[in-house]
Amino acid sequence: MGTRIVIIGANAAGAKAAAKARRIDPGAEITVVDRGEFISYGACGIPYYVSDTVQEVAELMSTPVGVMRDAAFFRKVKGVEVLTGMEAVAIGRKEKTVSLREDSTGAIRTLSYDRLVLATGSSPVTLPLKGKELSGIFTVKTIEDAELLKEKASSSTRACIVGGGLIGLETAEALLERGLTVTLVEMRNQLLPGVLDPEMARIVEKHLAEKGVAIHVGCTVEGFDGNGRVENVATTAGNVPAKLVVLAPGVKPNVTLAREAGLEIGATGAIAVNERMQTSDPAIYACGDCCETTHLVTGQKVHIPLGSTANKQGRVAGINVAGGDAAFAGVIGTAIVKVCDMNAGKTGLTETEARSAGFMVETVLAPAPDRAHFFPGAKPIALKLVAEKESGRILGLQAVGLGAVDKRIDAAVAAITFGATAAQLAQLDLAYAPPYAAAMDNLIVAADILRNKLEGHARGIAPAEVKRKLDEGDDFILLDVRSPGEHSEVRIAGAKLVPLGALREKMEMLPKDKEIVTFCKISLRGYEAQKIMEAAGFGDVKFMDGGILTWPYDLERG
Amino acid sequence: MGTRIVIIGANAAGAKAAAKARRIDPGAEITVVDRGEFISYGACGIPYYVSDTVQEVAELMSTPVGVMRDAAFFRKVKGVEVLTGMEAVAIGRKEKTVSLREDSTGAIRTLSYDRLVLATGSSPVTLPLKGKELSGIFTVKTIEDAELLKEKASSSTRACIVGGGLIGLETAEALLERGLTVTLVEMRNQLLPGVLDPEMARIVEKHLAEKGVAIHVGCTVEGFDGNGRVENVATTAGNVPAKLVVLAPGVKPNVTLAREAGLEIGATGAIAVNERMQTSDPAIYACGDCCETTHLVTGQKVHIPLGSTANKQGRVAGINVAGGDAAFAGVIGTAIVKVCDMNAGKTGLTETEARSAGFMVETVLAPAPDRAHFFPGAKPIALKLVAEKESGRILGLQAVGLGAVDKRIDAAVAAITFGATAAQLAQLDLAYAPPYAAAMDNLIVAADILRNKLEGHARGIAPAEVKRKLDEGDDFILLDVRSPGEHSEVRIAGAKLVPLGALREKMEMLPKDKEIVTFCKISLRGYEAQKIMEAAGFGDVKFMDGGILTWPYDLERG
Question: Radius of gyration over alpha carbons of chain A, in Å?
C-alpha cells in the first residue's frame, strides 16, 4: 500500500500539493478534503465575477484550456480522490487520523494518514459590530458569497464598502461597473495601508474620487441599522445610507483545526512552518493562506495570504509529503491591484514599513510616462523607491498609475530578492524600445536619483514636509521652475515661478542665504535647478520629490 | 579656468555625458560637437516617425514635458555649448586638441580639451552590392534618412527590406502601416538572428506572414537594378520588384576618428574601454554605440548598440570626465521589438549563443496566457528559458507573443544579472492579481518545468527533434493528449489521440517498450502524461517542449 497523504483544502495550495505529490510518488494514496462544493477555483477572480468581467463561474474553475477542475478531473487526470462537502473537524495526531463531518448528513468519518497537509485557507476578519447580522451585508471570499452579492447588487443602487485594502478596492470597482453608487470607508487614514505610503495612496484616492467613489479615510464603522435588512451604515463620519454593504476588513488564517490539534501557531496568528512547510508535528505540513512565511527583506515571520504564494508553497508541501525534499524561501510582500484603470502595487517594504522595521532610509518619488514619451499611448506612472541609507540596498518599490506598473514591480521583485543596491538597479539592462519604455526606464531614472541622493549630490524634500512649511508659514522660497505655460494650467499656491531656462539669468534676484525648495512637473528640472543654484553659491537648495505630479494636496488651476 | 571637456556626438550618450558632467563640475567648460543638425533626439523612435505613429519630428527631440532639446536648451538649461554641423576630423592626443570641420564652409577650427569624450555612434553596415547607389535605396538611422524615406514611401506601392533584425522588422511594420506591400529578405535562415532561437523566430515569421509580409529567409541579395532609380532587387530567391528599398543589415561602430588617433579598437571592432569608459588614452573616454562593453553572462566583450546602454554609459563617462568616479558594469544582451502587435525579445543568451559560448544547457518552451486565463484580454505569450545544466543558473530568456512579454524579460534581466538559478526564479514573489498574471506567472511555470527537467523528473524533447523523427520515419509514438475538440481543430499529422482524462484507462493499449512523445497545447498535460505513463511502467516517455502552440511546422486544420 502506498503512502497515505491527506490534504485538507482543495483550493490553490491544496490542489497544487495534491498534483505535485502525485507526480513525485505515483504509488501514494492521495485524498483531498474540502468543505465547499467548488474546488480549485481562482478565488482572486471573484471580484471580476461580481463585475461580470468574468461572465461564467466555470471560467474560474477551469484550466487555461477550458477543462473543468472538478472532482472527476482530479480523479481521472491526477489520480487524486477529492471529497467535497466534508469538513475536517479534528486531527488525531497520535493515531494519525482526521475526523471529517459530512455537511449534508452530519455524519462523521475518519481518514488515516501517513502525512497530512493543512491547506485550510483564510476567512474574512469578523468585525464585532452592532447589526452585522442584517441581510444585505456580505463578505467576498467564496463563489457562494459572490452569487449572493451579485443578486443583491442587481436590485440595489447604493453600496457601502468597509475596508480600503486590496479586496475593498477591487469590490468598489466591481460595484461601480454594475452601476451602483459606492461609498468606501477605511478605518486608517489612507487607502491601501500596508501596500502604499500615504502620498502614493493619495494618487489612488484622488483617482477613485474622480470616478465617483465617496471615500472616507480615518473613519470607523460603528454599526449597521435596518429592519431585518441593512439600510444605513453608522460611521464616525456620519451615516452612509446603503442597502448593500460589503465587509472587506482583511482576512485571518483558518487555524482552529491546527490549534486544537496542538500545532504551533506563530506570532502572526498563522500556522508556524519551517522552510519545508512542515508544522511543529513532522507528519503534518501546512501551505497557503493558513500558514505564515518569512519576509526575505526583514527576516521576520509574516502572514501575507496570496494565491501566487499558495501555489509555490503547495508545490513544496506536495514534494515533501511525497518523500522529496524542497524548501520555500519566503516572500517579499509583493501586492498589486487594479482599480478603475489605475494600477497600484508594491514589493519589498514601504517607507513606513522600513522605518518601523528599524531601517534608516532614503527615498525617491519619480513620476514619468511608462514608455517613450513620444510613443502614442504612453501613460503616467509614479514610482517610489526606498533604500537603506548606509548600504544603498533597495528595500522596496511602490508603483501607481494608469500605465504599466506591474513590470517595474516584477523587475524590482527580482532585484530586491537578490539584494540589489540602487547603483546596481540603475544599471540593469532592461528591455528598451519606444513601445515599452523610455531609453532610461522609470526604474533606472528612479534609481539614478536615489544614487544622487545617497551620494549627497541631490537633496530632496518630501511633499508632506513642504506642505507643513507652507502651512506653518516657514520662511523659505518655493520655486516653480516649470514653463509659464505649465504654470498657468496648474500650480501650488505660494510658489514663485522662475522657468529653468531663465534660471541662470534670473537667480541673481533670489537671496542666497534663504532656504529654497525647487520643483517642476516630475522633479528632474527641480533637481537640475538645485544643481545650478548650488553651483552659483546658494547655500540651502533642495528639490521637492516627485514634483507637481505627485503633490498630494490641493492645486490651483486655470 | 575650469576643466575643458569636449564631447564628440550630441545624441544619447554624448548629451547624457554633457549633462552629467555639468552637474558634477559646475565650473567645467563643456562643449559638445555634432556633425548633424538635429541633436539629442530619440533615434529609436525613427521607425515610428516613418509610420506616422509619431507625427512630428519635434516630439523625438523634446523632453517629456515638451521642451525642445536644441542647442539653446543645452546652453540655457545645462550650461553646455553645442556646436552643430561640425565634424571632428582628427584628434591631436599629444597637444590635446580636436580638429573640427565646419560642414557649410569646410573651414577647420581647433578645440583644446583636458578630457575628451567620444560618442560618435554607429552607422549602418555598408553592403558591397551592385546598384546600391540607385535612388530609392535607404537606410534608417537619422532623421534626415527618415524624411527622405517617408517622401519616397508616399509615392511607392512595393517595398523591399533587406535585413530581418530589429530595425528591419520595425521598418517592415512602418511601411505596412503606410499601406505598402512589403517583402523582407534575410540572409540567415531565420528572422531576428542573435535575438531568438529558430523556433521562437518562427512564431514571429508566421505572424508577419499572416500580416501580408512576404518573407525570404536564407536569402541573399545579389544587387539592385534600375535606371537611376531602383526597380528590382535581385536575390538568391529570385527578383523582388520594388521602387523602395530599405537596407537594415545592422550597424557598425563609428571608430575612424578613434582608430586614426591610435586608440585601441577591441576585437568587436568597437572602441575598447575599461569600466570607467576610459579608452587606451586616459584623457579620452568613449560611450554609446561607438564602444564595446562586457557581456555579464559570458564575460566576453560585445558590441550591442542600444539607446538604453548609451544613456547609462554617458552618465558614467560624464561623471568621470568631471572628476568623479563611476563604473559601468556591462550588459546582458537584452533586446525587444514590437512588430505588428507582436512583441518579441530576449535577455541573456539564446540557446544558440549559450551553446556556442561553451555552456551545457537545459531549455524549456512554455507558452501560456499573459494573465489569468479567465481575465478578458489575456493574450498568449511563449517563453523559452535557457539554463546551465550543471548549476541550474539561468542564462537567458526569450519571450514572444501578443501579450506582455516585456515584463517577463525585465524580471529575468534582474534575475540573470544576479545569477539566479531556476529554483530561485521559480520562487520570485512576482506581482499577482488576475489583470496582470496568472497565480503562477509564466516565468514561474517555465522555471518550474526547467527545475523538473534539471532534477530529472521531466524529460522534454525539442519540436525540431520530433519533426526529424517524423520525417525520417523513426519508430515512435507521437501522443496527442488534448481533448477530441482541440484535436479536431488543429493537429500534427501522424500523432495519435488519447485525451489525458482517458489516459489512465487507455494506456494499456500502448506498447510499454516503445519510445513515446506526448504533447498537448502548451506542454503541461504532456508532462502530466509522461508522469502517468512512467508510473505505469512505460520505459521511454518524453513530452514535446511547448506543445502545439510553439510547434513551428505545418499543422493539419479542420
Answer: 27
